[in-house]
Each structure stands twice: as structure tokens, then as C-alpha cells.
Design brief:
By secondary structure, the chain is mainly alpha-helical. The chain contains 13 helices and four strands. The strands form two sheets. It has a two-stranded antiparallel ribbon with strand order 1-2. It has a two-stranded antiparallel ribbon with strand order 3-4.
């Protein structure tokens, strides 16, 4: 079975290459659908497949940049990108990415990068899962109350409403983002992008893992616009992060290219699927994907804590992360096909009626 493994020339480790293909295709679909670079799955996935954590971060940033550019162009055609909002966030993103990357190099020098990054992932994923499902629960509570009063719930109503309170803080300069229909202090998106950029640098993510929810819950961006605008930001932070990590010698280009081949196809599927699944449908699937990623990271932590059980925990973590990525990807692809069929049927019915 040696033909299933390929030697990575820079890091010097042998990697199960079909795992790279599955990871790339699946994360392409998931990234295009959620507006994320998908690194919140890829970085732990690469580490589980055998890459040292610093190489997993740098390699993931490289593949993420190319895939996000493809998804951004596709979302732009659907009108899902507020470029003015994305460009405003650029300053905070770049500064945050560089600070995070420098922290990774320091953690690597003291030999703590693997443990620190994994635990940061655990904390972040738990908080995100709580945020998404708490929001969904609040939304459903409002729906039940509206039905009890025989009223129709406003389609724009949300469970968590932090954005309106933050938009009310009018620290100059105050700007209006026409496409997203948001008026707020320019410092709000800049501070959000700085924090997400820092996470991008230290965790190897595009920042989209929290930037998409942050755009929805903190800035007040509609979900479908948050998806496209976030991908625009992911592409920017990814390109800068790739240059930074490549300069530090922590990018395995061969692995990035293998994943990008699958991701380029998957990104098209995920992006088109957002035409047929909107708002809270996207958020619920996002929450499930976060839980799946959390399980794989916990399994890897258990392997580090209990090395005697590595023989079972290591393959279990690999199967879990690849299996979950595949399951979510198949679900998104099925929803896209169902939506496209329904759209074609409606067009035919309309044409027959005329």
C-alpha cells in the first residue's frame, strides 16, 4: 500500500494522498457554502494526516488563498459581496495575520505550538457551536411566540441581536455600506477584522470561521452577503498569510496543489448551493460542521495525552475528520441538485403557462 503515500519534500513526512484529495474537495464545497476558507477543518485535518502543526498551518493558508479567490469571483456574480465593507476590513486583517504568524514562530521555538493551537481550536469551536445553536433556539422561540399570537414573524428577525446595539455606537468616522445596507462606525468592522486576522495567523484559518458569524451577529450583515464578503476577506488574508509563511519556510506547496485541485471543483458546488439554502438553513449546517471538527481535534488531543492508545485514536481521528467532511459535502451537493431541479421545473411550468 506504499503507493497510497507520498513524500512531502519540504517537511519530509509521508502523507496519505487520497486524504488530501478528499479534504480538498470536501472543504471546497463546505468553504463555498459557508463563505469560509475551510481552514478550521483543514489545519486539524492536515495535522491528523501527519503534518507538523506549523506546516499544517502554512500549507492550509496557501491552498485556502487560491480556493477563496475562485469562490469570491463566483459569489460576486450572484451579488453576494460587499466590496466596500471587505476593503474597510483589510487594514485590521493584514495587521492581525502578521501578529498571529509571529506568535506561531515563537510557540514553535519553545516547543508548544501543537498543544496551544489544538486547545485554542477546542475553545473556539465550543464557543462557536454554542453561539450558532443558541441563536437558532432563540429564533425558534420567537417563531413559536408569533404562532401563539397568530402573527407572522418578520423574515429579517434574528435570535441574537447584538448588531443593532453595536451599530448605535457612532464613533467617527461613521460609514454607510450601501450593498449590505449597514450604517456603523468604521472601527466596528476594522476591530472585527483585526481579531479574525490574528486568529488567521495563529490558527492557520482564513478568519472566516468567526468572521462570517461576526459579520452576521456583530456587524449586522445579511447571511448571504456575509458569506460572499467573508470569502473576499479570506482571499486577502490568505494571500498575505501564504507570503508570510512561505518566507518562514512552512508551506508544503505539493500538498497545497493536490488539495487545490479538488477544492477548485468543490468551491463551485458549494457556492451555487447558497442559491437554494438561505439564512438559518446555512447556520444550522454550519453548527453541525463545527461540532464534527471539534470531535476530530479532541481525538487528537486524547492521542497526545494517552500515547499508549495512539494505535486506535490516530486512525479514528483520521476517519472521523474525513468522514464528516464527506458527509457534510454530500448533503450540500444534494441540496444544490434538489434546488436546481426545482428551479428548472418552475421555469418549465412558467413557460407552459405562457
Amino acid at each position: 500500500m506504499d503507493w497510497l503515500y507520498i513524500l512531502m519534500p519540504i517537511s519530509g513526512v509521508s502523507i496519505f494522498w487520497p486524504g488530501l484529495v478528499i479534504l480538498g474537495l470536501g472543504v471546497g464545497i463546505i468553504g463555498g457554502f459557508f463563505g469560509l476558507g475551510g481552514a478550521w477543518m483543514v489545519t486539524p485535518g492536515l495535522n491528523i494526516l501527519g503534518f507538523p502543526m506549523a506546516f499544517a498551518i502554512g500549507t492550509d493558508v496557501a491552498q485556502m488563498a487560491g480556493k477563496s479567490l475562485i469562490s469570491t469571483m463566483r459569489h460576486g456574480k450572484f451579488g453576494n459581496v460587499d466590496y466596500a465593507l471587505g476593503l474597510t476590513m483589510l487594514i485590521g486583517t493584514v495587521i492581525g495575520v502578521e501578529i498571529g504568524a509571529q506568535m506561531v514562530m515563537w510557540l514553535e521555538r519553545i516547543g508548544s505550538v501543537d498543544k496551544v493551537v489544538r486547545w485554542l481550536y477546542v475553545v473556539l469551536l465550543i464557543l462557536l457551536a454554542w453561539l450558532v445553536f443558541h441563536d437558532v433556539a432563540l429564533r425558534r422561540k420567537k417563531e413559536r411566540e408569533a404562532r401563539a399570537q397568530h402573527q407572522e414573524l418578520d423574515a429579517t428577525a434574528v435570535g441574537l441581536d447584538w448588531a443593532s446595539k453595536l451599530q448605535a455606537i457612532k464613533i467617527p468616522p461613521v460609514v454607510h455600506f450601501k450593498h449590505a445596507n449597514i450604517t456603523c462606525s468604521a472601527w466596528l468592522p476594522i476591530l472585527v477584522s483585526f481579531f479574525t486576522g490574528w486568529l488567521a495567523g495563529i490558527l492557520g484559518i482564513g478568519g472566516g470561521l468567526i468572521r462570517m458569524p461576526a459579520l452576521v451577529y456583530l456587524v449586522g450583515c445579511p447571511t448571504h452577503l456575509a458569506v460572499g464578503t467573508d470569502l473576499f476577506e479570506v482571499a486577502i488574508s490568505g494571500l498575505y498569510g501564504t507570503a508570510s509563511y512561505a518566507y518562514k519556510g512552512r508551506v508544503e506547496l505539493l500538498a497545497a496543489i493536490i488539495m487545490l485541485c479538488g477544492a477548485a471543483i468543490g468551491a463551485q458546488i458549494g457556492t451555487v448551493a447558497t442559491k437554494y439554502v438561505k439564512g438559518y438553513g446555512i447556520r444550522i449546517v454550519f453548527g453541525l460542521a463545527v461540532l464534527g471538527c471539534l470531535m476530530s481535534v479532541v481525538l487528537k488531543l486524547l492521542q497526545a495525552e494517552f500515547p499508549a492508545y495512539a494505535w486506535i485514536l490516530s486512525p479514528l481521528a483520521t476517519v472521523e475528520v474525513l468522514g464528516f467532511v464527506s458527509a457534510i459535502s454530500i448533503y450540500i451537493a444534494v441540496r444544490m441538485v434538489q434546488g436546481a431541479k426545482a428551479e428548472l421545473a418552475a421555469k418549465k411550468q412558467h413557460a407552459a403557462g405562457n
